[in-house]
Structures are given as C-alpha cells and as structure tokens.
Records
---
Amino acid sequence: MKANNPLIVVRDLSIAFAGAKAVDGLSFTVAAGEVTALVGESGSGKTVSGLSIAGLAPPEARITGRVTLAGADILGRTPRERRLAGHPAVSMVFQDPQAALNPVLTIGEQIVEAVRADGRTGARAAAARALELLDLVRIPEPGRRFSEYPHRLSGGMRQRVVIALALAASPVALVADEPTTALDVTIQAQILQLLIRLKDELGMALLLITHDLGVVAEAADRVLLMRDGRLLEDRGVRDFFDGPRHPYGRALLAARPGRRTRRGPRPRLADTSAPCLIGGEGSGAC
Amino acid sequence: MTLFAFMLRRTLAAAPMVVLMIVVNFLLLKAVPGDLVDVMAGESGIATVEQMADLRARFGLDRSALDQFQAYLSQLLRFDLGFSFRYSRPIADLVLERLPATALLVTVAVLAAVAVGVAAGVLAGRRPGGRFDRTVSVLSSLIFAMPSFWIGLVGIVLFAVHLRWLPIGGYATVGAPGAGWPHAVDVAAHLVLPAATLGLGYAALYARVTRAAVIETSRLDFVRTARAKGISETRVTLRHILRNALLPVVTLSGLKLGSMLGGAVVVETVFSWPGLGRLAFEAVADRDVNLLLSLFLCNSLLVIVMGILVDVSYAALDLRIEVTS
C-alpha cells in the first residue's frame, strides 16, 4: 500500500500524569485507508496516545505537542469541541465492550444518542440510521437487538455495537484500542475482519492499538513499536517481521509462541498424550 | 414472573416477620413499668386504691399478660386495632385522623430531601475537592452533628420569632378558612419549618451517598463512551452517570422513608404538628399501650411495604435486575 497523504499527523506528543511521563516525544503519521498498528507492552503509553488522538484522554493528563487531522489542530479538544468546531470525527473502539456500554440503556437508545449528537437529526431519522449502523456491523436481526439491553448480548455482539457507536459520527479515522483482547479467540478474527472491511468500505484510517503480534501480522500495513513512551520503530509490516532494527523489536518477535527455541521446536499440544481422567486406566474411557 | 406475583410473594414472605413484630412489640410494652391507670390517677390526684383497681378491671389491665396478648391477637385477626381508653375512642379512628398530617409532612420532607440531596451530591461529585464539594461536605457534617429537635428550635427562633416569616407551629392558623386556596397556602406556610427540620438530615445523607456514587460511576468506561459521542457534559451527567448512580440512593431513601416516623415523633412534638408522631409521643407519656401497639404495628408494616417498593423500583431503574424469585 502506497504512503498517500497523511490524515493524522502526530508531532512530538508528550503526556504526563502527576509528573510521570507516560508518552515522551511521540511523532508519527496515519494515512487514510491504511491500518497502522501501534504496538507495545502494557504501560508503553500506546493506549493514552490513542485516547488523546480521539480527544478522550483523562482531564488530569498534561498533554503537549501537536496532533493535526487533515491539517486542523485537534489536540486537547474533546469530541464535542471538535464537532462544534466543524472538524471531522476520530472515533474510538474500546477494549472492553462489556464496560463500554451503559447497562441501563438499550442498544438503540445508545446508538440513537450518538447519531443525534450532531443536533440536526430527528428521532425517526436517527432510529433509521441506528438500524443501518447495526446492519453495517453485521448484527443479525438489528430490529430485535435495537430494543435490547447490553447484558443480553454476547461479547462479540457487544463489540459490534461499540463499533456501530463509533461509526455514528461518520468518522474519518478509527482508533481501536485492543479491540479483540476481551473477546473469545473465535470471535477475535471476526471483529478484526469487520474493522478492516469497514475501513475499506468507508475509506477510514485505522489506528490499531495492540500487543498481539498475530493481529499485527494479519491486519496491519504499518507497525509503530512503542516502549516506555517512546517510538522505537516505524516500519512497513513486512519489513518489521523480516527483521526489526531495534533489539527490543527482535526480542519481541523471538518471544512469540510457536518460534523455534535453542533446544529445538516447542512441544506441540496435539503431540502430547492426554492423561486419563475418566474412570481410570483400563476402564475403556481413554 | 409478573409484578403482581412478585409483590404477592414478598407480602407472604413478610407474614412471619409481622407476627414476630407483634409479639416483640407486645413484650416490649409490657416490660415498661407503670400503666394508663397510674398516669390517670396521678393526673386526677385524688384516686384511691379501690378506684384504681376498678379502672384496671374495666380496662382489662388486671388480667395476666398472656390473657391480654390473646385478646390483642383476636382483635387483630378481626382487623380491629382496639380501643384507646385515654381518648375514649377506637384507635383506628385516631390513626386515620392523624395519618394525613404525618403523610403530608413525611412526603414533603422526603421529596425535598431527595431533590436537594441528590442535586447537591451530583454537583459535588462532578468536581470532587472543588469549592462546592467542600462546602457540601462541611455542611453535611454540621447537620449530622446537630440533633433535629435543636435544628427545629433554632428554626423557630430565627424564622418564626425574629424574622416572623413563618408560623411557630401547628397545622393551620386557628380561625382561618378551613378550605380552598387560602387554607392550602396557610398549611404550606406551617409545613415549611417542620418539613425542613425533618428533611435536612436526610438531605445531608443523600448528598453524601449520591456524591460517592457519582464519583464511582464517573470512572466507569461507559461514561467515556458517552463522552466520545460528543454529547454535552450535562447530558453525560444526567443520562449516564446519575441514572447508574441512583440505585444506592433509592435503596437508602426507601428504607429511610420507613423509619421517618421515628424522626417525625421529635419534629411533630417540637412544632405541635398534629400527626402520628406526636400521638405516639403522647401515648408513651400516657402509657396508652393499646394505642402504642397499633402505632408500632403501622410503622412496622410501613417499613415492610417500603422494602417491597424499593425492590420493585430497582427493576424499573436497572433492567438487569428482574423481579423473579
């Protein structure tokens, strides 16, 4: 994928909490139509970077630097301030869909509220748009889900609702913070594919925050590797997996499960014989 | 399970508790030294021992405690609250006559306390450590520290005696029209001080609980989701934070409403408010056991009913809680 005009430009972003620096001089760009993976371990500053790009950093965070979206300075502005200033939206997909939805409002009420946040859409048009969004994120029977409460939905369905909420503002970019971490393995691939498909269909930029190198290999066009609030690598995904320049990147790749270790291949689960648990030996249960 | 079935079930489950309360109330009052005859004899000052024995026989006070309890139970089974020899009237009449004044006082006090307490709690919880939060915190501590009879007396001295804004006590001005708008305004003026006195402590409590719940809820992820939608902070607070923070407040208000009659005893006495609380206070002083038993029973039933209503309102506030067994 060619590096077209950058949509989001982050320059020298620093974020501090009560004197402690969480992010230190972070600079990168995100291009429209691309999946940029922001990779790092817990505490590397990747989530709070994503939050501040989406305008959702906690108020006690001290943020300096510059973030522009299509040329407009958006750093330090809340989603509401950005909307009122006429900037295009950067939406966020959250890590834990269970916690990200209000338990006492129906799915429909929550999406309609997001749609109507523009102050122009009427109730009926907003409901129609909400159903459209539920359909867009491939929720079966959107009409029925519309009036249900979050606790009645599975984890995967809830994450689809969170994505629908993010799409309500017609964003030009999505920041997805560990969007698959809280989900079952079987659902993870579906949600990842949904995000990539939506990015293609809607022409958005996707900033994918993750610590899962499998997800990176599957989805990303570019890899940003962070540690201790600093950017260590900014490479194309193939370059990165072929051989990271930074020692930390190399160590990270070597630590992935399924790699050869010095003592030979790791034992595979399928090769080990399961202990006989039912009925004891000779019972024929094994 | 339907709402009706749920309420029926809860009511049946409360039955053993009601029986237990009847027994405990009876034993408690029989353990109090002195009886109505002692009080009446003391007041008249000229009663002989024979006259007192005669009165006790007429009131049934000479029978054994067990006999008296049996008589009381058989009365209750006939939905008869009994007879007050002090007032020479059926107790049901007395209670029904006094109930409206207390219901008015308690309802107004609770509504005002919830409105003031929740509003103060939300504003304080939105900016913990801010100027408003600290003010509410100091005020509520002060209110907790002041007994309600004292707050009432200070209110009377300040607003009724010095400033002359409000009447000193009573339910309505004697000799004023007993109906229509002038009467309603008159009663409302009489209601302000007692309702404020009764509600103030509860308002302070609700402010504290609401503040804590708002701070707790503000940290939850869905509040960030709401903010991400680009809606106003007011809407985030009211629709997302408050709605979820209200559960503990409802629990507390419901349970406290049941116990407000206890507070009403003090307030009604201070303000000469002609309600059940003052009736209870006088019944204690008069050793009018029959009347007290009925008042205790009414109060116990009120607490149980409020408990059931709190459970039902949970389901209305939070759909995850369903009214099932």
---
Amino acid sequence: MEEPARAGDEEALARRALTGDRAAWDALVARHHRRVVVSLLARGVRVDRAHELAQETWARLIQQQQRGLLTELRLPNLALTQAAFLAADDARRARRESISGAVEELPERQHPVDPSVSAERRLLSEEQLSRAHAALAQVSPSARSVFLLACDGQELPHAEVAARVGLSVQRVRQILCEVRKKLRTALEEETHA
Amino acid sequence: MLKPHLTRDSAEQYILGALAPERAAALEAHTLECEPCARLLQEEALLSEQLHEVAQALPGEERVVRPARWSARYRAAGTAVAAIAAAAALALVVARVQQPARGGASVPRVLDAQPPTVALGEEEPPTNMVACPDLATQEACTRKAAERGLLVMNPWGTAEVPRYEARTGLPEGALSARQPVSL
C-alpha cells in the first residue's frame, strides 16, 4: 500500500502545485531538487552553476504555472528537461562569448542544435542496459529492493527507503554503494569491450 | 589553500547526499579549484543518472518492490496465526453447540474436529502479463512488451492484447456474411 500512497501523494502535490499552492511547490522542490543538481553535474556543469541553474529551473516552472502554461506536472522529468535546456543555453552563451567574430560564423548557425536531443538523450545503449540488468539480477533481493526504491524516480529519501525495507539508513547507503560498484563495473566492461 | 582531493568514495557519498553539510560545502569548493576532482564528481553524477535509467528500464514486473513485512518469514508467520485463529473459532462454535440445552451436568467430550486448513493461496499473475506503470517509460515499455507478445496491463486495469494478422489465402470478402461466396 505504500507505493500507491507515495504515488498518490506525488499526484496530489502536483495537482495542488498546478493551482498555485506554494506549500505544494516547496514540497516538490525539496523532493526533487537534489536530482536536478546531480543531473546538471552529470552534464559537466560546475557545481556552483549547477545550484544556480537548479534554482532557475524551479523558478521557470513556477513562472510557467503562474502564466497558465503548465497543464500537467510530471516530476522529476519535467524539471530535468527544463534544467537540460537551461544548461544547453548556458553552454551556448559561454561559447559565443569565448569565440570572437560574428554570430553568423558560429558552427551552430549552419547546424542548429536541437535542444530536445540534449534534453532527452539516452545515457546508455541497449547492450549496456542488458549488462546492467544482468548484474542487478545477481545481487540479493533486499539489495535489489533498496536500489529500486532509491533509483526508480520517486526520489525517496534514504530514511524512507530504510523504513520500507526494515534496515538502517547507514546500511541502505552501504548497499547502494555496493550496487553502484557492481553496476559501474558492468557498464565499464561493456564500454571497454 | 587547496583542500584535500576527492576520493571516489567521498564523491559517491556527496552524490548520495550522505555527507554532512560542511563536508559537502568543502567538497564543492574544492571542485571549483581542482579540475580532476570536478571530473571525478561528474563521473559519479553521470553514473547516478545512468543508474536511474537502469532502474527505470527494468520490466514492470521486476520493479515491484515489496515491503519487508511481505517477506517469506512474515508470510509464514501470518499464515500460522490465521490458522490458529480459525481453529480456535471453530472449537468455540463446536463447544457451544454441544452444551446441554437445559443446564444439566455435562460430560466433557473430546472434540475430534480437525482444525480447518486455511487456504491463503497466492494467485500467481499470468506469466504473459506485464505492467507499464511509469508514465515516463510507458511507451517504450508497451512497445517492447508487444514485441515480445506479452499482454500489457496499464494503470487503469485494462489490458491491451497484441494483434496478430494472418493471411487465409481466401479471396478478399470471402468471409463476408452479406453474400454467399463460392470457395
């Protein structure tokens, strides 16, 4: 019953946020902010800029809601996409400033960058995914549960993961580190092959 | 002054949100001054994003996570408790039925009733049924399931059955009921 409860809670918060409820926005930001920052770091954004862009991401989403442009709110995906757009804009601006000459001479004038490609990019190939899934199948069921609860997109805090699986927070983090290690090895093996 | 370099462990702990605020702030400050450590942090962040993709790309039935209390040990204990409760209830009912109606002295009798067996059979879901509950990956999940010939159960409880087309070799319209067709 806890899974639907969490999903229902998320949906209720999203509905309230769409009506402009500030407390609902605060709860959603608190839940998903870290994931947005980490996604920006993964794109090579400096950590200080990542924090700024993450704040900007939420500001843009709230602004869109206030203008009536948001009809639905699926998090964290919407925030991740918004952050990716902002990061791409940031990179383009930095590049323009670093290159002397007219804007028309920039390569992207001839080959415009499709922002949707950078926003929705897949990080792993099918081979990498199947290798990772094979590695995941070899871990213990409890470790697998911990991994899925922590990484399935609901952004559960580790304390909540711990409560659900009946372990301590410290043990949950230890398990996550072990699973990360196994999956890192699986992904790197594929890359090297 | 340059702070100590990051280790993979500390970067991992930062990404997991397990560092104390002051240590996290020190780590962030260091990555602004040290390019190799910034790259290490990026690698860990990228791995974290990849792991989200791995988790979300798992087939629906493999992503079902049961709470700890649903483990085999708890299920066995629950079954035993239910069986004992049912047996006690039955014994009480039988004992009341066998009491003399007019209040005479009763002779204790040994009940030979067998405790009922409690059938808590867990119906296994059909093996050819999968769920695609995550809206973010629902489309890909549905497509993959259809390719594998599996039934797709969506969150509204209806199932989509893959369609198979076959050629009978009969002329077009031969199976129409509107008019007789000579075969």
